[in-house]
Amino acid sequence: xxxxxxxxxxxxxxxxxxxAPLLQAIAVVLDPGTWGDDREAVSYGDNPALAxxxxxxxxxxYLLMALAALGLLHVMRRRAVVFGHIVGxxxxxxxxxxxxxxxxxPVEWWLGRHxxxxxxxxxxxxxLNLPGVVFGFQMPWLFFAIFGLPILLVGVWRAGFAHxxxxxxxxxxxxxxxxxxxxxxxxxxxxxxxxxxxxxGVAMLRMSREEWISYYPTAAPGRTTPDSYANTTA
Length: 234
Description:
By secondary structure, the chain is an all-alpha fold. It has helices at 5-30, 32-35, 40-46, 48-72, 81-100, 104-114, 117-128, 131-138, 141-146, 148-158, 165-179, 184-206, 209-213, 226-233.
């Protein structure tokens, strides 16, 4: 299936761009809090199995999106290179930290089983408002994911790989989710980025090996391509 590392990277990057946002979109559909009380302390009691499944799906969606962001840097090797090398790693850091925050879910589930929803919320707020948590895990790192990905996609658009509507759709979808209550409307808000990013993923999967390799730096003193490297190690 894979002729070399270039084929593997192309297929992996395209697949991640489809799977990661799709996992997030499915998670919000499965989440009992989407259709009922959005407090984890309550929604876990409504359906513990689905609550745990959606939490794990969010976790892996964010981790895989971090890897997908790295894959996007490949198509920015010819244009917006410096831009991509700055925004890309920041976006990755944002998604890794966003994934880490999912560990608060089981804490809130435990609190919900031993305290009232109001008391659970009070205790959790005290925990999350500790300076070490705020500045070590939340601020500004989480926003590197929420705002970093649309900005990174602007670079992908400027590099000529995406249409202008792709970064706009992702920005509108994730931006809208920040200003609306978590619920049924969030399903629509997160479905829009899933479609836009999935479109990029399909485009990568449809690329030929030669098209993918064409994004590597041209052969020059001190710089290598997959083919030139293969020639030196043959």
